[in-house]
Amino acid sequence: MSTSDTTAEKSDTRFFGQPWALVHIFGVEMWERFSFYGMQGILLIYLYFSVSEGGLGLSQAVAGGIVGAYGGSVYLSTILGAWVADRMLGSERVLFLSAIVIVAGHVALALLPGFLGVGVGLVLVALGSGGLKANATSVVGSLYDADDTRRDAGFSLFYLGINLGAFMGPILTGILQSSLGFHYGFGLAAIGMTLGLVQYSFGRRALPDEARRVPNPLPSSRYPLVSIIALAAIAAIVVLVLLGVIRADNLSTIVIIGTVVAAVAYFAVILSSRLIDGTERSRVWGFLPLFVTSVAFWSLYQQQFTVLTVYSDERLDRDILGFVMPVSWVQSINPVFIIILSGVFAAVWTRLGTRQPSTPVKFALGAMIMGAAFLLFLPFAGGGPNSTPLLAIVGILLVFTIAELLISPVGLSVTTKLAPKPFHTQMVALFFLSIALGTAISGWLVQFYDPKNEVPYFSILGGIAIVVGLGLLLSVKPVLRLMKGVN
């Protein structure tokens, strides 16, 4: 594609004021989220429901830890997907291959029995989703110039696609799970991802050449070494599992440790690289407090897939005019608000233009609002079965959503702007590492949740998030100085 073609592509406004190429990434991400959240909507209850109910009969604490570890692994695997994109294949090709791996994972969950299906399926879905996540975001970033004021609005629209899928997935898999069984729900997730793969296969050629570029190619002489390291890593994991070092009851702790090590290593590699200049290095330092705030936010937000799922199963009044809605439907409430409000937020950011709040301010408010959402559980603490009205959870998840829209799409956008050119996709992976760490922590925290004594749990975690947000709010000026003109 010539320079003039690239310029024309980036100035295109056919998709709700955004470049038409956005529709292709919008579509594959929508179906990936349909399959991801559809499967995750029934995963926790599949793990802890009794065998007579079609589940695997694990304890709620172990089941929650597995779900948190799996969710964290999804975001942790963005490192691998980002590295392969930046050094070997380019973002667009990795995105396409990742979609194929995700399909295979959902098929395994649907067809393989018991723990075998869970093990094979979750590993494949985690690897594929991690590769798709970092690279879909990077490809979206390639559609805009750095100073294009449509950028945040475009990411908000992209986020709308994510949540269209996230809304429909739990509803439809929940219906199949409750009427036909868990494996039918997992099968529907596989069908959804297959549709996304087919749709993307036809549209991928319309993406700009920049999406296929390998920014920092790995010398061919180092390919054998990479292969040896990959095989050694797989062998080490297998040995640790066989020796009992890696177990179902400590998975979340292992993912937390692995994510912290990976994040520290990634920051060290980027900051010490000779390929970046002083301005780029300063921007990476400016990203660090955003990273920490993001971890605090996601450690609370992702509990809608762990603690809130248990809460909804045991405490929430899910009776609607005589119809008891499936537990998984609760996870479709947040996407509804995202669908409604993402357009509103996109319009507000577009209308404000250069007058909108800076990214650190948005992050600080997001963390504080998320903390406030946890405090909203306190009036219902200590209740019995069916004691929490459905409307209360709807209201709390509305607050979740407002906090999310201040951090997640904004975080994706600012990461692509702060990223040094040689580490473009890998910086996106760093943002996802903050989600990985927060998600793994959300699973680890399940062990401290006691339905008989909820006040300390919700008040302490809510208070920590508010303190983190206040700390960033008080540090806005020095953070902006480090960001060197990126707001």
From TrEMBL:
CDD domains to which the protein is assigned, alphabetical: MFS_DtpA_like (cd17346)
Molecular-function annotations in GO: peptide transmembrane transporter activity
UniProt subcellular location: Cell membrane; Membrane
Transmembrane segments: 34-51, 63-85, 94-116, 122-144, 156-176, 182-202, 223-246, 252-272, 284-301, 321-349, 361-382, 388-407, 428-449, 455-474
GO biological-process terms attached to the record: oligopeptide transport
Keyword Cell membrane: yes
Classification via InterPro entries: Dipep/tripep_permease, MFS_dom, MFS_trans_sf, MFS_Transporters, POT_fam, PTR2_symporter_CS
Residue span(s) of domain Major facilitator superfamily (MFS) profile: 1-480
Major site of localization recorded for this protein: membrane
Domain of life from the UniProt record: Bacteria
GO cellular component: plasma membrane
Keywords from the named record: Cell membrane, Membrane, Transmembrane, Transmembrane helix, Transport
Membrane topology: Multi-pass membrane protein
Family membership noted in the UniProt record: Belongs to the major facilitator superfamily. Proton-dependent oligopeptide transporter (POT/PTR) (TC 2.A.17) family.
Protein name, UniProt field: Di-/tripeptide transporter
